[in-house]
Amino acid sequence: MSVPSIPFLDLVTPHVELEQELTAVFQQALRTAGFIGGPMVENFEKEFAAFCQTERAVAVSSGTDALRFALIAAGVKPGDVAVTVPNTFIATTEAISQAGALPEFVDIDERTYNMDPQKLRQYLEMQCSVSGDGKLVSKRSHRPVTAIVPVHLYGQMADMDPILELAEQYRLIVIEDACQAHGAEYLSRKHNRWFKAGSMGRAAAFSFYPGKNLGACGEGGAVTTNDARIADAVKMLRDHGQAKKYYHDVEGYNGRLDAIQTGILSVKLKHLPEWNAKRRERAEEYKRLFAASEGGVQAPFEPSWSRAVYHLYVVRTADREGMMTYLKNVGIGTGIHYPIPLHLQRAYVSLGYKKGSFPVTERVSESIVSLPMFPQLAREQQTRVAESVAEFLSVQAAPATESVSIG
Question: pLDDT, tens digit, for every residue of 242-268?
C-alpha cells in the first residue's frame, strides 16, 4: 500500500471545515446585493485593525496594492529612493517602483533572513550624503532617500527598534511589508512591550493571498496605520481618487477589495490566533526533531524578541536540490523562497547590482528550502518529514564515511 503524500500546503481542509460559515457569507451578499463596499468591508477593517493593534485598517485588492498605496499615502514621491532587502518576493520592489520611487538594497541578517540594522546603518552613513537643504541623498543614484521598507519575512518580524531609531535620526518614513506576518509580534526593548506586525511603522501592508496565514478565497490585501490621514488617503487611492462618488481629488486606482472576500476574511480572522498557535507548535516540533538528528539541517532562528507565526518553515542545507528531489520522490512537498535574489533578477538589471553585491542574501538563497508548514500538519507527518530528511543526509554522507573507514 502506498504511503500518503504530505503536501507543502493544505488549503482544502480549513475551507471544508469552515464551509458552512463561508457559504453563509456568499448567501448574505446575494440576498443584499452588497458586493462592493458596505458593512462587510467596514466590519472587517475594524476587526483587522483591532487584531493588529492599530487605529485603522483599509482593505485593498492585493498586498502589492497595499504596499504601493501605503508608500504613496505616506508621502513617498516619484524620484525618491526606498531602501529594502533583496531577499523578498518581487512585489516589495514592484510596489516601490509603481509608487514612482527607486528600490535600493541593504543585506540581511544571516540568522533571521530579515533586514540587518547594522547594514542599514552602514548604507545610511557611507552610501548616502546630506545635501545643502538637509535631505539624505543616495550616492549611488543621486536621488533623495525618503523611506525604509523592512520585510517581515517567513512570518518573523525584522528587528524594528534599531530600524526605527535610524529612521528617526535620518527623518525617513518606515513602511512595514507585513505580507507574511499576520499576528507576528516583536518585543520592543525601547518601550518594554510587545508590538504586533503592522503597528510599528508609519503604515504597513498585508497580503491575503490564499496561502497566507490569513488568506482570502482569491486576492486581497490591507493597509494598517495609526495615522488617519494615511488611512483616508489610501481609501481615496483604492477608489479612483474619490472621497465622494464622482468627486476626484486625485487620480487613483481601482484597488478595492470586494465585500465577499472581506466577509470570508472576517470568518477566518476569528480562527487566526489558534492557527498561528498551531504553526508555532509545529515549528517547535520540527526544532525538536531536527535537534535529535546528526545535523545537516539548520532550523530557523527565532530571537528572544520575536514571536514568529511561521508562514513558512525555512531550513538550510548544503545540497538543497538533492534534498528536494529526495523528498519529492518519497511524496513530500517542498518549496524555495526565494531562489534568485531581487538584485540578480533580470527585471532589475538596470539597477546595476552584480553578483557579490549582497553576499549574505546570495549565500542564503543557495541553501534555503521550505518544508511543509500549515496548522493541520500532523505530528506523524512531521516525524516522517524529519526521518526522510535524515535518510537523505545519511545516504549523502555514506560514500564519504565508507571511504574514510577503508582508508
Answer: 988 999 999 999 999 999 999 999 999
Cβ neighbours of residue 30 closer than 8 Å, sequence gap 6 or more: none
**308: which 3 cell numbers?**
514568529
Q: Which residues pair with 115 in a beta bridge?
A: 108
Residues 6+ apart with CB under 8 A from 404: none
What is the Cα–Cα distance from 314 to 280, expressed in whole angstroms?
Answer: 13
Say if strands 56-60 and 221-225 run parallel, antiparallel, or are unpaired.
antiparallel
Per-residue pLDDT at 402 exceeds 80 = no
| 244 CB burial (10 A radius; 0-12, 13-18, 19+) | exposed
Closest to 235 measured CA to CA, from 42, 31, 2:
42
Residue ranges of alpha helices (H) inside 75-204 are 91-98, 117-126, 160-170
CA 79 to chain centre: 25
CA distance 306 to 149: 19
- What is 272-398's CATH topology? Aspartate Aminotransferase, domain 1 (3.90.1150)
**Residue 404: predicted pLDDT:** 34
Is residue 370 within 8 A of residue 336, CB to CB? The reply is yes
> For the stretch 118-139, what's the b/e string if a residue is b when 16 or more beta carbons lie within 10 angstroms of its beta carbon?
ebbbebbeeebeeeeeebbbbe
Q: 12-269 belongs to which CATH class?
A: alpha beta
For residues 16 and 238, is the Cβ–Cβ distance under 8 A?
no
For 181, the grid coordinates are 506576518
Q: Report which of 363, 373, 310, 54 is spatially closest to residue 157, judged by C-alpha positions.
A: 310
Task: Check: CB of residue 313 under 8 Å from CB of residue 282.
Answer: yes
Q: Map out the domains of the chain as residue ranges.
A: 12-269, 272-398
CA 248 – CA 242 distance, rounded (Å) = 4
